[in-house]
Design a protein that fits this description.
462 residues; binds flavin-adenine dinucleotide; 22% strand; alpha+beta; Vanillyl-alcohol Oxidase, Chain A, domain 3; Uridine Diphospho-n-acetylenolpyruvylglucosamine Reductase, domain 3
Length: 462
């Protein structure tokens, strides 16, 4: 079985210039984008760490852009696209890794970053409702003024939007404690705009919202989200050095399984560490050190520090989150590790895996087979209620066949691959079609205009 696409999915033809002009006429008074440079910018994301996606997505550009800063404006855009049969691709901040917001079939790109208000927060429960385009960092700051915080954040929180995180992301900071965005309990409701000649604004409760969660904006335009929050914590950031890889992995497991309140738990194999822009220099350590990056609550700090020697580690660096110079430690974790490494070393790419339990045997087996072509980056996560280490290894690019072989070996060993080198929602997940996602598209985008080519269940439906 092959895991990597060798072409684009079936797509509608590009809209004729007359169709685009008809849409533009319907949108008179809204800020439109026509300059090639700006259209190219609005059609891009961060997929370039995939040598498979990069050539496939080259030259895929929207034909018209629109900035919306109200739900009414979004409805006007939705109606105009339907009336003139023009595809519509949604954009938050454009930080996706898999070309999620790259318009494969041209058409209109709708920038939602102008929808940026925190609408309400319940002081008793912490449940909040916010516009889809609000920046996650701005939202988190506002929640903190009420003693609350987002449960989950991508490492791109300083630029990414809330709607884009739900529609295109999966988890990140906080996943060690709270699991993943699609786990029931995080997303409690959505406001959605439909793609119909007379576009409607609908309120969906938690169950009806689920099919739009991680659907790449293929089955409805999210204009607001209602979500659970957590108590705000003044995280303490630590970097812990380990000279022994096996002890480092066991320590990451042990800390993850403890009752410490953690926000992140990221383990980097020694060769990766030299390429990371450590805040404050990272506190020394040697080239041979593997490094565990931890964000822990202040009440757990004394215990963690006193535990380190027994776990085989030693403290290299420590500071309260948000203080001091340089990048936040969070921006060395998740796909920021990938970004820093790939910007400094050419000829590398990455994978996203859940390894069979316990992880160590699989980590060592694959290392033996692939040597220095595979560098381990692990993240503590809660997956279906159990603590695990997810793997985002850096992989030297030796061509498609080698990457296919590596994925096969992960699957043969009982691991799961959340493939970052594919275009569809399904192929980046478990490979299966979610009938509820397709049913939601039938309801909210019956003409199939939203983000064509990204939902395989749509064109494969009976
Ligand atoms: C260095 C790096 C690190 C990253 N780390 C993480 C991480 O830790 N965790 C993680 O999950 N992701 C991560 N990502 C991926 C990405 O940054 C996040 O998922 C981010 O939350 C996406 O938000 P965005 O606003 O940029 O979305 P965009 O890229 O603009 O959009 C993502 C998808 O959502 C759709 N969309 C956007 N807005 C809406 C809307 N209102 N309604 C419906 N659909 C919409 C778009 O069409 C697109 O399909 C990382 C990416 C990079 C480059």
């Amino acid at each position: 079985m092959t895991h990597l696409p060798d072409g684009l999915p079936p797509l509608p033809a590009l809209a004729e210039p007359e169709q685009i002009e008809a849409v533009a006429r319907d949108l008179e008074g809204l800020p439109l984008v026509r300059s090639t440079v700006e259209l190219e910018r609005l059609s891009r994301d961060f997929h370039e760490d995939s040598p498979v996606l990069t050539p496939l997505l080259a030259g895929r550009v929207a034909q018209l852009g629109v900035h919306a800063s109200s739900v009414e404006a979004v409805q006007r855009v939705a109606s105009a696209c339907v009336r003139h049969a023009v595809p519509l691709t949604l954009r938050g901040a454009g930080t996706g890794n898999y070309g999620q917001c790259v318009p494969l079939a041209g058409g209109v790109v709708l920038d939602l970053s102008g929808l940026n208000r925190l609408r309400a927060i319940d002081p008793l429960t912490g449940v909040f409702t916010a516009d889809a385009g609000i920046g996650l960092a701005a939202l988190d700051d506002q929640l903190r003024q009420a003693g609350r915080a987002l449960r989950l954040l991508p490492s791109t929180a300083r630029s990414a939007s809330l709607g884009g995180f739900i529609a295109g992301g999966s988890g990140g900071l906080g996943s060690v404690r709270w699991g993943f965005l699609r786990d029931p309990g995080h997303l409690l409701g959505l406001e959605v705009v439909t793609l119909e000649p007379e576009s409607r604004r609908l309120e969906l409760a938690a169950a009806a919202s689920r099919p739009l969660n991680h659907a790449y904006g293929c089955n409805g335009i999210i204009t607001a989200l209602t979500m659970a929050s957590t108590e705000a914590v003044a995280w303490q950031e630590l970097v812990i050095g380990f000279s022994d890889w096996e002890r480092a992995v066991v320590a990451a497991r042990t800390i993850g399984e403890s009752s410490l309140v953690l926000q992140s738990l990221c383990l980097l194999e020694a060769p990766l560490c030299g390429a990371m822009p450590w805040p404050g220099g990272g506190g020394g350590g040697t080239d041979a050190d593997h490094r565990l990056l931890v964000q822990v609550s202040p009440d757990g700090l004394p215990l963690l520090l006193s535990w380190l020697a027994e776990l085989g580690g030693r403290l290299l660096w420590q500071r309260p989150a948000g203080s001091g110079q340089g990048l936040p430690l969070a921006e060395l974790t998740w796909n920021h590790t990938t970004l820093h490494w790939c910007r400094r070393q050419s000829g590398w790419t990455y994978l996203q895996l859940l390894l069979p339990q316990p992880e160590l045997a699989c980590l060592q087996g694959l290392k033996q087979a692939w040597g220095d072509d595979l560098l381990w980056h692990l993240e503590g996560v809660r997956s279906q209620g159990a603590q695990r280490l997810a793997a985002l290894p850096l992989v030297r690019w030796r061509g498609r066949e080698a990457l296919e072989r590596l994925i096969d070996q992960v699957l043969e060993r009982g691991g799961l691959c959340f493939n970052p080198h594919v275009l569809t929602v399904e192929d980046g997940g478990l490979g299966v079609i979610d009938a509820d996602q397709v049913a939601a598209k039938t309801l909210y985008d019956p003409d199939g205009l939203l983000n064509p080519g990204k939902l395989r269940g749509w064109w494969e439906r009976p």
